[in-house]
Amino acid sequence: MAIDRDRRRTLSALGAGALTASPLARAAEAFFPGPPPGPRSAPAGPTVAVARRPGLVGARDVLDPAKLADGLGAAVARAVGESSPVDGLRRLFEPTDVVGIKVNCLGGAGVSTRPEVAHELARWLQAAGVPANRILIWDRSDRELSAAGYTLSDGPGVRVRGTGVDWDRRLTEWGPSASRFARAMVEDLTAVISLGRLKDHGLAGVTLSLKNWYGTVNNPNKLHAEGCAPYVPHLVAHPLIREKLRLSIVDGSTGQCHGGPGRAPNWDWPFHGFLASTDPVALDTVGWRTLEAQRKRVGLPTLAAEERAPRYIAGAAKLGLGVDDPARIEIAEV
Q1: What digits encode the pLDDT tens for the residues 223-269?
Q2: Residues linked to residue 274 through DSSP beta bridges, in sequence order
Q3: Where are the alpha helices (DSSP H) in 94-166?
Q4: What distances in angstroms separate CA 143 from CA 139, 189, 197, 258, one per listed residue?
Q5: pTM over 0.85
Q6: Alpha helices, DSSP H only, in the chain?
Q7: List of residues 6+ apart from 252 with CB closer than 8 A
Q8: Which of 113, 175, 276, 333 is at a distance of 20 to 30 A from 287, taking alpha carbons?
Q9: Is residue 327 part of a domain?
Q10: Crossing angle of helices 65-80/115-127, nearest 10°?
Q11: How many distinct structural domains can be found in the chain?
């Protein structure tokens, strides 16, 4: 993806689209008479930092540690507007926070958030003043985390574990649905990072930072009608997520442009980089463009042509969760 350094780029070729005015979508809108505020750290003019480091992914699919630290660090620092990732995280998180790093491990090894990336973030959080025992790397289940290469740990130090059956007992209504949230989100975590993966989704179009939050509720299987468009925005707009979300990152060490969300090796490609922003909507807009560009390179039709453009991104912007207007998104290559 050709990106001019620190310049605004027009993304109009994406066509952000709008939510279809279906009965379900109209019913969902009734829950929010006006758009709620976006994430606490969202800037008025969002920046999406894109850091590519050729050679990041080496032989046997192993990440180069130096290129990982350099690329991820540059993306995090630029996204927050600081000179280093530690300074950036220090700006977003307090030593008293309990920070959750929400990874995406549904697809197993090869198409999940890499453990090395999550643990690098955890190290920087500690350097920024957050104690190790106040950091949780988590997803829906221990099984999925283990299959993606994570070593489970419930302390001391950084915790790595799945929600399992540890859901809040209360059923919470949100937008067009109701769910039980992970108890950690309700009772433990005060701030969160979305650490998703650069990949295609057979129903929703893409799964990057916004849809990553499906892993925090007990019933994601019931939230896929209409390409997830009514559900993703309202879920992320829930205060448990919206008020705690400080930073969104996409692990693009490799990407998958088709056949997701499970692994489809024929559609993998080495992107060798990371995307980061304090605006999850802008981040997903740029991530969508990145996947569309790769689809074009390999001769695949657009997601719109396959009737699965990620309409939930426009829905999230409509609810005030961020910016999807291409003219307002700055793409910074770092």
Answers
A1: 999 999 999 999 999 999 999 999 999 999 999 999 999 999 999 99
A2: 51, 251
A3: 115-127, 142-147
A4: 10, 22, 18, 25
A5: yes
A6: 23-29, 65-80, 85-92, 115-127, 142-147, 183, 231-237, 239-242, 280-297, 312-318
A7: 197, 198, 271, 272, 273, 274, 275, 287, 290
A8: 175
A9: yes
A10: 60
A11: 1
Where in the sequence is the domain holding 248, given as residue range(s)?
Answer: 39-333
Q: Does 23 map to a domain? A: no
For position 308, which CATH number holds?
A: 3.40.50
In a domain, residue 190? The reply is yes
Distance CA 205, CA 228 (A): 9
Helix 85-92 and helix 115-127, axial crossing angle in degrees, nearest 10: 70
Q: Are 56 and 253 in contact (CB under 8 A)?
A: yes
User: Residue 155 — pLDDT band, cuts 50, 70, 90?
Assistant: confident
**Is 11 in a helix, a strand, or coil?**
coil
Instruction: Give the separation between CA 196 and CA 224, rounded to whole angstroms.
Output: 18
Tokens of 242: 């919206």
